[in-house]
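Box 3.1. Reading complex inputs
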Amino acid sequence: MHRELLRSLPRLHLAVCLGAAIVAGLLVLVQAELLAGVLSGRFTPAVLLPLALVIGARGALSWVQGVAAGRTASGVKSLLRHRLLARFQELELSGHRSGELVTLTGRGLDALDPYLTGYLPSVAVAAVVPVAVLIRLFVADLTTAIIVLVTLPLIPIFGALVGMTTKAVTERQWRALARLGGHFLDVVRGLPTLRAFGRARYQASVIREVADAHRSATMRTLRVAFLSSLVLELVASLSLALVAVPVGLRLLSGSLDLTTALLVLLLAPEAYLPLRVMGTRFHAAMEGVTAADQTFALLGEGVSREPGRLESSGEIRLEGVTVRYPGRDDPALDEVSLVIAPGERVAVIGESGAGKSTLLHLLLGFVAPTSGRILVGGVDLADLDLDAWRRRLAFVPQRPHLFATSVAENISLGANASPAEIRTAATEAQAAGFIDDLPDGYDTVLGERGATLSAGQRQRVALARAFCRPSAEILLLDEPTARLDGRSESAVLDATRRLAEGRTAIIVAHRPAMIDLADRVIRVSAGKIVDDRVRAGGV
Amino acid sequence: MTWMTWIKGMAGRLTVAALAGAAADLFGIGLIASAAWLITRAAEQPPLAVLSVAIVGVRAFATGRGVLRYAERLAGHDVALRAQARTREELYTSLIPAGPLTHRGADLLSRMVDDTDAVQDLLVRCLLPAIAALATGVVAVVIGVFLLPTAAVALLVGLVMAGVLLPLATATASRRWSARLAPARAELASRVADLVHGAADLAAYGAEGRALEAGMAADDRLAALERRQARTGATAMMAGVLAQGLTVVAVVWICTSAAAGTITTTVLALVSLVAFEPVLPLAAAGERLTGVLAALRRLREIKATPPAVHEPSTPVSMPSGPLTIEIQDLAVHHSGRPALDGVSLTLTPGRRVAVVGPSGAGKSTLLSALMRTVDYVSGKILINGIDVRDIASDDVRGVVSGLTQDPYVFQASIKANLRLAGPDASDGRLEQVVQAAHLETWVARTGWDTELGEDGRTLSGGQLQRLALARALLYDPRVLLLDEPAEALDEATADDLMTDLLDATHGRTTLLVTHRLRGLEAVDEIIVLENGKVIQQGTHAQLLKASGYYRALWQAEAMLTS
């Protein structure tokens, strides 16, 4: 079970953590031995000193266990996080739900803590300590040892038995509880809609009714489910009674000495305790296992193809390219063939969902053709060194992402540009004006916790990125003026015109002014090229 | 302190849970005390009759403890579930009049829902264990006072250290650590979000390496902090072990020094040992308390959010019959900046007015102001001459409503999603609106009672929009508002829908917000908004004659679709 997870654990820290837990568990035996001796009067009160030392050692071991457990947990989380982060590129581009990825990498992995710091050590202790206690009991007093030996398995047996019979029911209830939380979140999110239809106040009573119904159903189940804990509790405490009463009677008849009797009384509960602790930690731990499973499922997903090494330039040729996205019936691009000569400026038009963005993503290497191939100067794109190829591209996406760093870093993005070059790029993209107005100019931090820019401003920062790569020969623009108002549109348009000069440009466009920049217009519809003409008046 | 008031409301159930929990722990003390007494007294070999009470005691305490634990767990869960339901209902009720929540972000919203679990934790993980620990501690010390007062003092000191000082220390440490961990977590979250959401930008510009490094560095910083926090936790664990063990050693030492006898010494030593069992978990409870209190503070802040609009103290009732809406020089501010800046328009019964303009021009704000979900700073909105500020906002939305921005699809059946706009609508009526919204094929294929997924993710943008439109038509308000009904539809469907829509709303008071101009020749008046101001106004024919935004956009549309 959880083999993959266990394999990724840092061995040393884990070994220290489990070792400390086991030794501390075994020291309880020594502690019982000394305490029983002092109480019965067999040992002198001076033995209290070694007893205190044993307790001190248990304390120190529990500290070591805690520290090592913390190191194990943070080590595993870091390892998994690093591996996830390294795979994000492929995962996100292959269309994963981004919210899920962000949550899993952040809070999701924290669910591993109870598994690593609580459950695993308790398993180790449960495997060793009850056996040691039993051995000591056998040496001390056979009758007690047999009573414990017979009753001890009742804990896992009853735990499993009651667990099995109630598992389905309890799981259904916990799922219902999760659904209840989901329902509440659903209602809160939909509050504006409820308000619009005058149903907001009514829904408050629905929340109450649903919760009440859920509670009575849950309590009905719990009455049965908690019987398991009743049984476990009874086994543990009744066995103490089972041990104590016969021991008392045998003391009465003189067939047992007090030291042994006290030792038995102190040790017997220690046989049951580790198993009960393990049981109580099991549920919290399983959440972490789920998170780990999700992580490994993501990490195990189709490894990307062997990277190519070739470099090439020249005309771009698509030969019968079809792209199908998983889970969609219709192909995004259907048998598209197309040649784009160096220096050509091509506008791609068509309805949304026609396949225009897919065309750009193909050229960027974000998606690979399901069938057909793309040639750059006669070399298959799949054989090109993708990084070198992308260095020759400048891409302005439909919704550029601004990173939570400074404006300057957002513009240079990967390029080693000097502040002067960044400034020039911003000026060319007509972005210098508003950047200078920002509180810290080019050092202003953007993003959720920083300054926010309007859609037009974001678009111009993205254009500045393209200007910041003077060596890029091919310009890929995805509807750079969509969602812009008239004035921003003209600013972006001017910048784009200058950017396209002397470069191959493929521009997904909606607005006529943007189409005007091109000397060739391709219309895409339902994944096919339905029209391809050189514009009258084009170059 | 709302949770205080309702803790009082549940006092009965809480008392039962607390009593059961405390009694279970006390039975544990009883069990160990009677067993210790039984064994040490038996060693003196008295007549059997002397031991019989102790034998009965041992068996009774052992059985009772199990049963009481069962009762405690049942009562505790009942209280917890009630607490959660109450908190959620209260939170929801306080959200109803509040401003729009959309700006809070989806993540913050789900965190708010998580926060409602805090009250549950406060009771089940902090308050009830503390009560049980207190009862156990008091009883153990009282036993000590009867047997040997000096030993009782040692026990008291040990219990106070483990049950009061240690939890206080962990609570303080946890507060300090969460203050340091929170920014590190936020930093990691934003790096991760950058890597995920910016994946395309990073790949295109070959900048993955640097972003990846930044993400890993953020993770390393968080991991280092977590390791140091684990050290604090480990120290607390050690302190607990030492407090328990050394207290027992001290008690035994005091007893032997005072020559208290084997029975007294053993009973006191074992009672001391067991008395710590409910006390030691309080250190973890102290740690959790910090998070609970922070969650409760956040909930209080949400509850204190001022309402979006001021409700009149003595509301005027909504006039019956056809309605005329006059907007005079209306100004609305969003976080200090004008979103609407002196807009006037009149909507007379049966007239259809379209509002067009670039995004951010204030079109949706205008509808929100009409629906009384945002307040305005100056100007007037009059319904049949009555100031809307004198009418209850619920009443306004009862007659002025429709398809709003970002319509929401609930995780419920198609039928239930429609019925929320018309709880008493007949099935025939539902079919009618579904047809009007061009949704009948999809509904026939999907099924009326099929549950729609989270966030309506099983729907395409177009289906969602049409479902919302069907809902608006079912609600059938006297003044119909439609915010971008054709958004996210492909051209052909959008054209069909607009044609049907303009047919269906014929003779109905309608305010239509759109960015597409096709079909607008059918409406009575078009208003062009830009930067919160009316820049053009007239019929389609009039606006086409004048140069300006409208004609430019019309030509652009014509060119693209030709």
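In summary: The radius of gyration of chain A is 35 Å.
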